[in-house]
Design goal:
The complex is a heterodimer of chains A (132) and B (173).
Chain A: H1 13-22, H2 33-61, H3 67-81, H4 92-96, H5 106-115, H6 120-130
Chain B: H1 3-27, H2 30-47, H3 57-82, H4 87-97, H5 105-115, H6 119-130, H7 135-142, H8 146-164
Helix pairs in contact in B: 1-2, 1-3, 2-3, 3-7, 4-5, 5-8, 6-8
The chains are: A mainly alpha (132), B mainly alpha (173).
């Protein structure tokens, strides 16, 4: 069994191949779209990674919201419900009886606050302190 | 003609035929070998400024050729998968349909057995058996120790021997 004679090439192939190959330096360099876009994709990817890392670091290292923020949040909620500030916060029970918010119960507010991330301990505290 | 072009033409003159035979054993088809050789020399031309002469020119050229050939094989595997065919079946079809395959049934069986070897073993087998490259040179091209190459070639031989059902490697170690 021969090692090389089992395959062949067309007549005069290697002369033709050498000629074609020696023309390579004269060819214009073509840059594919992928290679052209590569730097921009890299920049976008870096930015995305930085944002994700920053987000992850903030999520893991940020301290829990201080107690005082709870009141700021509740105040904000009250302001949103009553932009004119006609009803003070400590009259929330009265406010819930207002015909414009008919059907809105204290449980609704509690559920809303819970869904927004407020802890049960805070709600219990608020209920106890303010009768909220 | 500048220095780079002169060196490139020298590489073409000295290595194009050798690279072609090496590639042809992998792709099992003249047309694909011709395309791949052009890709390899294009790569050599673009990489020429980075050639520092620390490695031997021969080693450098062969390293590019073997890397590009492996890349081609990987692309071919993906193409075969997308066509829901196996790469082995595709390689066998190439051997059977190549108009420039002049061997007998035993040569054909050997070629088919070689295509079934894992990538690295096939690389070692082709360099050693067909290209008759010394282990020391293979070691530089593949960046692998001589001992590991000898072991790899031995395993490849055993697999081919088992596939063919007979010993064709007397004195080829």
């Amino acid at each position: 069994m021969s090692k090389r004679n089992d395959i062949s090439t067309p007549e005069g192939y290697f002369g033709d191949l050498q000629m074609r190959l020696s023309e390579i330096p004269a060819r214009p360099v073509r840059v594919s779209t992928v290679h052209r876009l590569a730097p921009y994709v890299a920049i976008a990817a870096s930015f995305l990674v930085a944002v994700m890392l920053g987000n992850a670091i903030l999520r893991t290292s940020a301290p829990a919201a201080p107690e005082d923020d709870t009141w700021a949040y509740v105040s904000y909620l009250a302001d949103a419900l009553d932009p004119d500030g006609a009803v003070p916060l400590d009259m929330a029970g009265y406010y819930l009886d207002d015909e414009e918010t008919e059907g809105l119960s204290a449980d609704d507010i509690v559920n809303y606050l819970l869904a927004d991330g407020i802890s049960v301990e805070h709600l219990n505290y608020l209920s106890y302190e303010e009768g909220f | 003609m500048n220095e780079a072009e002169r060196l490139f033409n020298e590489i073409v003159k000295d290595y194009s035929e050798r690279v072609y035979w090496h590639v042809r054993r992998f792709v099992n088809n003249h047309e694909d070998a011709d395309d791949l050789v052009q890709e390899i020399f294009l790569k050599i031309w673009t990489a020429l400024p980075s050639f520092r002469g620390e490695a031997q020119l021969f080693t450098w050229v062969y390293r590019i050729a073997t890397n590009e050939t492996l890349n081609w094989l990987r692309r071919e595997k993906v193409r075969s998968a997308l066509r829901f065919t196996s790469i082995d079946a595709e390689m066998e079809r190439r051997i059977d349909s190549d108009p420039f395959f002049d061997g007998d049934a035993a040569d054909r069986a050997l070629s088919k057995a070689v295509t079934k070897l894992p990538e690295k073993q096939r690389q070692v087998f082709i360099l050693r058996y067909y290209d008759e490259m010394p282990y020391e040179q293979m070691s530089e091209v593949l960046d692998t120790s001589v001992g590991a190459l000898k072991a790899s070639f031995h395993i490849a031989q055993e697999k081919v021997r088992a596939a063919l059902g007979k010993d064709i490697f007397v004195g080829s170690d």
